[in-house]
Specification:
Blueprint lengths: L6 E3 L5 E3 L2 E2 H8 L3 E5 H19 L3 E6 L6 H10 L2 E4 L2 H9 L7 E3 L6 H9 L4 E4 L2 H13 L4 E8 L21 E2 L4 H10 L4 E7 L9 H22 L5 E3 L17 H22 L5 E4 L3 H4 L3 E13 L3 E6 L8 H5 L5 E3 L9 E6 L8 E8 L7 E5 L19 E6 L2 E6 L4 H5 L12
Parallel strand pairs: 4-20, 5-6, 5-13, 6-7, 7-8, 8-9, 9-10, 9-11, 11-12, 12-13, 15-17
Antiparallel strand pairs: 1-2, 2-3, 4-14, 14-15, 14-19, 16-19, 17-18, 20-21
The structure holds ligand LLP.
The site of ligand LLP has 22 residues, from helix 10.
Length: 443
C-alpha cells in the first residue's frame, strides 16, 4: 500500500481514498469511477516547486504535463499551486484557458501542431511554444508577423539518451519522431534557422527522454548533454540559452516490480537535475538557465484509483479465471497498449488474504481488453467492488468511447468529501456529433 497515505483501510476493512470509503463512493456515484485525491496532487506539485526554490534559488518553474490528466479542475489546482502547465493540443490549451489558467505560464508542445493550433496559441499569448519542425517555425514566424507580435520559443532537442522504459514511451532514441538530434547536427541547424527569424524569439532548449523512468542517471546524462549543447550553440552562434526545459518522466509505483518512492525521493531526482545544471554551468562558464521541468505521471498517477463492480466471473478449468468488470480498455487502454501492470484490490474486503490469481477483463468486444492480468485477490463474487490503483495518469486522458461505452465520471476527494469534476456521460452525449442524414432514412 502507498506510503504516502493516499490510501488507507478503515475499520470496516474498506479501502479509503482521501478519507472517503470506496464502497460509499461506488454506491453514491456508480462505477466505473475515477477517484482523485486532491491532497496528494497538491503535495506532489509542492514537492517539485519547493525543490526548485531550495536547490535552484527559485530560478525555474514546474510545469504540470497535463497530457497525464486534463480537465478544468486539474488546471485550477495547478493555478492555485502557482505552477505552470504544459499542453500538447488545442484541446488541452482550450481547457486550461477555460479554467482561467494564466497563458504566460503555459508551454505548448507537439511534434505536429496544426496551423489552427499555432494560431490559437499565438492569439492566446501562450508563454512559450516548443518548436518541433521547420514548418512550425515558418508558420509561427508568419503568424507573429501578421499580428505584429513576438513569441518565445524553445527548440525540442533530442539529446540521444536511451532510458529504460517501454519502447512506446521512449522519446530520445536516434529514430524518435520528436525533436532535432544533437548527434546528427539537425539541432544546431534548427537553432541557426530560428535565430535568423525576426518574429520568434529563441529562449532556449527542451528535451524529454521518456516516461516511467527510475534511473536518476538517465536524467543526469540528459541534463549534461543539454548543457553541452547550450555551450555548442553559444560557440557556434553567440546565442546563449536563457531557458532549459528538461521535460518529465519520473516513474511511479504500479506494482511491486516498481520502486515505491516517497516525496523525498522525487525531491532527490529534481535536486540531482538542479545540481547537474549548476555544475555544468560553472564548468562550462555559462549563465544559469531558467530551469523548467514537466512532471505529469508522478503528480497525478498515484493520486488516482478506479473503482469497478465485478460482473461475470468465468473459470476456464486449468487455464485461468476471468473477473469481468464494468470498465475496460475504453477507460484504461494501458494494458492493451503497453501490457501495463496494476495492483488490484477488493475494496470492501481489504484484510482478506489473497487466495487466487485472476485476470481482470473489461467489457469490450476484444480479447485484448484486459485491465490487469494474473493478479492476486481474495474470493470475489459478482457485485463486489474492485479498485485498481495508480490510475490517475494516462487513464482518463487516453479514454475513448470505444464500443460506445461511457467515459466514466471522476470525483475529487479531500478530507472525506467528494466532488464530481467530470460528469457522467449520457446516451445523448454519444450521438451529440452524429448527423442523422435524411437521405439515408428516406425509404
Ligand atoms: N513533457 C513531454 C514533452 C512529454 O512528452 C511528456 C510525456 C511529459 C512531459 C510528461 O511525462 P511524465 O512525467 O508523465 O512521464 N501514455 C503513456 C505515457 C506517454 C507520455 C508522453 N509524454 C503511458 O500511459 O504510459
Amino acid at each position: 500500500m502507498n506510503e504516502r497515505k493516499t490510501l488507507t483501510v478503515n475499520c470496516s476493512g474498506h479501502l479509503e481514498i482521501g478519507g472517503c470509503d470506496a464502497l460509499e463512493l461506488a454506491s453514491e456515484y456508480g462505477t466505473p469511477l475515477y477517484v482523485f485525491d486532491e491532497d496528494y496532487i497538491r503535495r506532489m506539485m509542492s514537492v517539485y516547486s519547493n525543490t526548485i526554490d531550495k536547490e535552484y534559488g527559485g530560478h525555474g518553474i514546474v510545469l504540470y504535463a497535463s497530457k497525464a490528466f486534463s480537465c478544468l479542475a486539474i488546471y485550477s489546482i495547478a493555478k492555485s499551486q502557482g505552477i505552470g502547465v504544459d499542453v500538447v493540443s488545442g484541446g488541452e490549451l482550450y481547457t486550461a484557458l477555460k479554467a482561467g489558467f494564466p497563458a504566460e505560464k503555459i508551454y505548448m508542445h507537439g511534434n505536429n501542431k496544426t496551423a489552427e493550433e499555432l494560431e490559437f496559441a499565438v492569439d492566446s499569448n501562450v508563454g512559450t511554444i516548443v518548436v518541433d519542425s521547420a514548418l512550425e517555425a515558418d508558420r509561427l514566424d508568419e503568424l507573429c508577423a501578421s499580428r505584429s507580435k513576438k513569441c518565445n520559443v524553445l527548440i525540442r532537442v533530442n539529446p540521444g539518451v536511451e532510458a529504460h522504459t517501454h519502447a512506446y514511451v521512449q522519446t530520445a532514441t536516434p529514430d524518435s519522431k520528436f525533436g532535432f538530434s544533437v548527434a546528427n547536427g539537425t539541432a544546431e541547424d534548427m537553432a541557426k534557422y530560428i535565430l535568423a527569424k525576426e518574429n520568434i524569439v529563441l529562449k532556449g532548449f527542451h528535451c524529454h527522454i521518456g516516461s516511467q523512468i527510475f534511473e536518476k542517471q538517465s536524467f543526469v546524462i540528459a541534463a549534461e548533454k543539454m548543457m553541452d549543447f547550450v555551450l555548442q550553440i553559444k560557440q557556434s552562434t553567440g546565442f546563449e540559452a536563457e531557458v532549459l526545459n528538461l521535460g518529465g518522466g519520473f516513474g511511479i509505483y504500479y506494482t511491486d516490480e516498481d520502486p515505491k518512492l516517497k516525496e523525498e525521493d522525487y525531491a532527490e531526482y529534481l535536486k540531482a537535475l538542479c545540481e547537474t545544471v549548476k555544475r555544468k554551468a560553472w564548468q562550462l562558464n555559462l549563465q544559469l538557465p531558467y530551469l523548467a521541468i514537466e512532471p505529469g505521471r508522478s503528480i497525478v498517477g498515484e493520486a488516482g484509483v478506479t473503482l469497478y463492480t465485478a460482473g461475470a466471473i468465468k473459470t476456464i478449468p486449468g487455464i485461468k479465471t476471468y473477473v469481468a468488470v464494468d470498465g475496460g480498455m475504453f477507460e484504461n487502454p494501458r494494458y492493451a497498449l503497453y501490457q501495463s501492470k496494476y495492483c488490484v484490490v477488493a475494496a470492501g474486503n481489504m484484510n482478506a488474504p489473497c487466495t487466487q490469481n485472476v485476470t481482470i477483463a473489461g467489457k469490450c468486444c476484444e480479447s485484448g481488453d484486459i485491465i490487469a492480468a494474473d493478479v492476486p485477490l481474495p474470493e470475489i463474487a459478482s457485485g463486489d467492488i474492485l479498485a485498481v490503483l495508480s490510475t490517475g495518469a494516462y487513464n482518463y486522458s487516453m479514454a475513448s468511447n470505444y464500443n460506445r461505452n461511457f467515459i466514466p465520471q471522476a470525483v475529487l476527494v479531500k478530507d472525506g468529501m467528494a466532488d464530481v469534476i467530470i460528469k457522467k456521460q449520457t446516451f445523448e452525449d454519444l450521438i451529440r456529433n452524429d448527423v442523422a442524414l435524411e437521405r439515408l432514412n428516406s425509404d
